[in-house]
């Protein structure tokens, strides 16, 4: 997707922007000249980004992160809710903590972020909310009942927000990556990687930059009429869903 050059820098907040997909997204916005704030629990934000230590499971941290971004860059115009965790295990072995920790981070954390972002966007009468879901949220995956539920929930959340906030020129969309070359997939065995590639029509994993390109397109002026959409970046793995 060719993203038009942004003429005026926007205030962007990316959660979990210190590594993997989140880092690539933050770097893509920085390359466009936007003012980017990144939340992280462990540090390591990309050069040029405002680093904010925050845990999105803590409402006070979320509020403080927005306050810091607003003070440095102005009201947040683009929110990318990317931070997420996994706690994979089969259903009968899944503990209450395995379930609740993943739901609280991936789904409830995104709710907290969207609610706080909407306050400023409603005043601006514009804004872009972009949730990073997963092909797993659409296809399901054994051993990932908690993760799949959290990522599927983002679709319902985005579509409800699209209807609720659309009259104020605020869009809400979802990007659903497939398997991406990151630290999380690097731990898979060669046999596992080959099995996964065999299911992907394009026959390869995505690069983080390819996911970032979809995100920056959704934030671009050219996509102002796109809302409530789920954009798959999965090499065709989840087509039909």
From TrEMBL:
GO terms for molecular function: oxidoreductase activity, acting on the CH-OH group of donors, NAD or NADP as acceptor. Keywords: Oxidoreductase. It holds the Pfam family adh_short_C2. One of its GO terms (biological process) is fatty acid elongation. Coiled coil: none annotated. InterPro entries: KR_dom (IPR057326), NAD(P)-bd_dom_sf (IPR036291), Sc_DH/Rdtase_CS (IPR020904), SDR_fam (IPR002347). SMART domains: PKS_KR. Residues 10-183 form the Ketoreductase domain. NCBIfam families: PRK12826.1-2. Belongs to the short-chain dehydrogenases/reductases (SDR) family. PANTHER family: 3-OXOACYL-[ACYL-CARRIER-PROTEIN] REDUCTASE, CHLOROPLASTIC, SHORT-CHAIN DEHYDROGENASES/REDUCTASES FAMILY MEMBER. This is SDR family oxidoreductase.
């Amino acid at each position: 997707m060719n993203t038009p050059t942004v003429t005026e820098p926007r205030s962007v907040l990316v959660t979990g922007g210190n590594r993997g997909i989140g880092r690539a997204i933050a770097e893509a916005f920085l390359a466009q000249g936007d003012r980017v704030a990144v939340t992280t629990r462990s540090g390591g934000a990309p050069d040029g980004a405002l680093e904010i230590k925050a845990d999105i499971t803590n409402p006070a941290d979320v509020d403080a992160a927005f306050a810091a971004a607003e003070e440095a860059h102005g009201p947040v115009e683009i929110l990318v809710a990317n931070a997420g965790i996994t706690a994979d295990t089969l259903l009968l072995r899944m503990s209450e903590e395995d379930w609740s920790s993943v739901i609280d981070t991936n789904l409830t954390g995104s709710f907290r972020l969207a609610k706080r972002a909407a306050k400023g966007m409603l005043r601006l009468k514009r804004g872009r909310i972009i949730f990073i879901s997963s092909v797993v949220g659409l296809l399901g995956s054994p051993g990932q009942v908690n993760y799949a539920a959290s990522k599927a929930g983002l679709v319902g959340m985005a579509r409800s927000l699209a209807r609720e906030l659309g009259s104020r020129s605020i869009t809400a969309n979802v990007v659903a990556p497939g398997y991406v070359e990151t630290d999380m997939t690097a731990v898979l065995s060669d046999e596992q990687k080959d099995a996964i590639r065999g299911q992907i029509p394009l026959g390869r994993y995505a690069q983080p930059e390819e996911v970032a390109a979809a995100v920056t397109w959704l934030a671009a002026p050219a996509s102002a009429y796109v809302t409530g959409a789920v954009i798959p970046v999965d090499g065709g793995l989840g087509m039909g869903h």
